[in-house]
Amino acid sequence: MPELFTVVTPQEALEKLKDNLTHRVASETVKTNLAIGRVTAGPIYSSDNLPTFPRSTMDGYAVIASDTYGSTESIPAYINLIGEIPMGQPSDLILTRGNIAKVHTGSMLPEGSDAVVMVENTQIVDAQTIEIVRPVAPGENILQVGDDIAKGQIILPEGHLLRAQDIGGLMGLGITELNVYGRPKVVIISTGDELIPPNKDLTPGKIRDINTYSLAALTLQSGAIPLTTPIIGDSFEELLDAARKSILEADMLVISAGSSVSTRDLTSAVISNLGDPGILVHGISIKPGKPTILASIEGKPVVGLPGNPVSALVIFDIFCIPSIYMLSGCSTPPDKPNVDARITHNLASIPGREDYIPVKLRTEGEILLADPIFGESNLITTVMKADGLIKIPLDKSGIYQGEIVNAKMFR
Ligand code: AMP
Ligand code: MG
Fold first, then answer.
1. Which pLDDT belongs to residue 1?
2. Which of 27, 91, 275, 329 could make a disulfide contact with 85, Cβ separation 3.0–4.6 Å?
3. Same domain membership, residue 394 and residue 350
């Protein structure tokens, strides 16, 4: 059987793929309240100051700061209360020396005031007189016009992945629509004569298709749109036909299985017939997932994944998710949640190969432990039982029990 001769490291492989991904998804205008997980297609400027009026950040009294200088518990400043500023309304009070006005968190400040004394640092003497027991400096406990965001300032740069706080901030500025990159369309094709759809009864020799669904779910989680196709048998013509159509209509193509080098493995021949530059990498020094194909057709990523459901999942995670983010205009994908934990068993590897091992986390007292999940590495249940994956780096021949490992969590 032919071998995968020109195996490259995972890092080299990813770089080659990224260097060839020139395709970008067109931008579109969407409602800001529905833009979570989308990527800004240009810088966003503030059309307003935030706040638009000077506001108190505390419950207390709007003052002229110099009136409070020198006040202490034993020698308080006695100041004249001229009124209260209601929430959500402008104030017609004008503060002059020796006067204060009652304010609430978020109230507009009266004209003339330059600070707020917290209610905790005051005592009511009578309806008109307030004792202040601690001085404030000008600007204390207030927000000036534009303190949060100044009008015309860039609030979010281009290529920014929108999070909940961004959606809130934009809405707070009255930006109810914005320009974002479109969601990439990812076609997933599962191939193999042995596969049947999950809703069909099994017959001897057949297995139900797993990869179409796990990969579509990962695609959705990464903000892209999965387009699934019917299962394709081990037929060069059928697979080529399906792949040609897909690469025209989609932004990315993923073919599951048939990615190795046996006579039944047709994926590399099919990808070679799709266009230029074609296959960039065939074979990666990684376990699971050595027989992986990375290609680019007219700047769009095309990936041939090993059919083993665990390999397909791990390789999709490492190579396809960053590609999806790049297509979406986001060049630095968010880091996965990860934790450091103590590994509970020795794990062997081979120097020159990067290994990914599913682990289950548990705590013992204050200590976080990572139990490797043993069992046939091609069984989907090994990753179903796991909380995350740990990596044995390329240069290491293994990890000793008790070493600290970093587990990247499954979402
Ligand atoms: P291959 O990469 O074609 O050599 O397939 C490797 C293994 O993965 C074989 O045992 C296949 O039956 C299995 N396999 C391939 N595609 C799928 C799929 N879509 N769902 C579940 N198992 C698969
Ligand atoms: Mg196969």
1. 42
2. 91
3. yes
256 lines ligand 1 (CB under 6 A): yes
* Cα–ligand 2 centroid distance for 265 (angstroms): 6
Cα of 411 from ligand 1 centre, angstroms: 24
Task: Please work out whether the CB of residue 234 comes within 6 Å of at least one atom of ligand 1.
Answer: no
* DSSP helix, strand, coil percent of the chain (3-state; round to 5): 20, 35, 45
First to last CA, the chain: 38
pLDDT of amino acid 5:
63
Among 195, 202, 382, say which to mutate for ligand 1: greatest number of ligand atoms within 8 Å of CB. Answer: 195
214 CB under 6 A from ligand 1?
no
Q: Give this prediction's pTM.
A: 0.90
Closest ligand, as measured to the CA of 306: 1
State residue 3's pLDDT score. 61
For residue 250, the CA-to-ligand 1 centroid distance in Å is 24
Q: Based on the domain organization, do 317 and 356 belong to the same domain?
A: no
Question: Ligand 1 within 6 A of 182 CB?
Answer: no
CA distance 357 to 140: 54
Instruction: Give the pLDDT confidence of 354-406 residue by residue, as tens digits.
Output: 999 999 999 999 999 999 999 887 899 999 999 999 999 999 999 999 999 99
Helix, coil or strand: residue 340: strand
Across 33-153, the runs of DSSP E, i.e. the strands, are 44-45, 55-56, 60-63, 77-84, 99-103, 115-118, 122-126, 129-132, 142-143
Number of Cβ within 10 Å of residue 318's Cβ equals 20
Q: Is the pLDDT of residue 35 over 50?
A: yes
State whether the beta carbon of 259 lies less than 6 angstroms from ligand 1: yes
Residue 3 placed within a domain: no
Asked if residue 386 is part of any domain, the answer here is: yes
> Of the ligands numbered here, which is closest to the C-alpha atom of 255?
1
Domain identity same for 207 and 229: yes
